[in-house]
Amino acid sequence: MAGLQYGIIGCGMMGQEHLRNIALLQDASVVAIYEPDAGMRALSAEAVPTAKMVGSIEELLAVEAVNCLLIASPNYLHLEQLEKIAAIRPLPVLVEKPLFTDPADAPRLAALRAAYPAPIWVAMEYRYMPPVARMIEQADEATGGIRMLTIREHRFPFLEKVGDWNRFNRNTGGTLVEKCCHFFDLMRHILKSNPVRVMASGGQSVNHVDEVYDGNRSDIWDNAYVIVDFASGARAMLELCMFAEGARYQEEISAVGPAGKIECLVPGPGRFWPEHLGEPPVAQVIVSPRDPKGPHVVEIPVDPQLLEAGDHNGSTFYQHQRFQKAVKGTQPVEVALDDGWWAVAMGLAAQKSAETGQAVSFPLPFSPKAS
Length: 371
Fold this sequence. Notes:
Gfo-Idh-MocA_inositol_DH; alpha/beta; Gfo/Idh/MocA-like_OxRdtase_N; 371 residues; NAD(P)-bd_dom_sf; 9-stranded mixed sheet; Gfo/Idh/MocA family oxidoreductase; 24% strand
């Protein structure tokens, strides 16, 4: 087939990052953009002056040159937009996480999965961060089989987005869906197993507590602990804090088994690193065998051009490279609809556990069933 010619649905903060990374790809271009917000539409037109600006998804799908799609709209729109695409012109699509936000949407997802004839790739950038990918590659050998997996993200508060949509659980699915579906996806991906039970505690302690929009007070959470038991017998834990941007590393992931421990340390976006501290930190992977003892530290530098193009440690570019191959049929989809579905189901279960104070066990009405 010809090179990838993207139609973009939603070009806000994350959509802009996608534009910058698509521009770095070989044999790919953006030919049409649907972005309702005037400010973001102007930025998109400046970034890709050759792209056609359209006023609806229908208009975008009518652009004959478009042969694949990217959805980077607000969370609560993703499923509805996928259904519209399926009804009109079901092209290969890369859809940003989370795949959906409402537990009641599970039957619609099942119908979409059964009928959609083209690849659907759910954007899970964290899998493709170079230090995370290196850790995953070496994890089984370093640990002798993972029994405990811990993911810590200590980061900055939610950024301002168009219309402040990300300040409310009803729009995002809740922080444990919006933000943490990345980490639940990593858990399943690393452990190669599905969850059986989730226990969580979380809430809104510091961020956005005094913010009011159109008479409604922000209710988005800023911290949580989540423990997940897996069918394999492994356990995983997430520690999220969104008022800890003073930390040297943003993500710290560790996996431990009978043979030893492996961990990776990932810095946050370079644009947030204070100039007075000098050069920003470089990602690391650390292998710590039990015998002989002695941690082995390897730095994992990332191409500065990729760091400049986005806030995800180069992963957005690497994800697009793989999506490109999947569209061309030279490799399978690596993050399929069921992967995105599981990640949200785990997040919804964690939100429910934190709200009720009770563990939540799978299967659940909104978790994926065998296709």
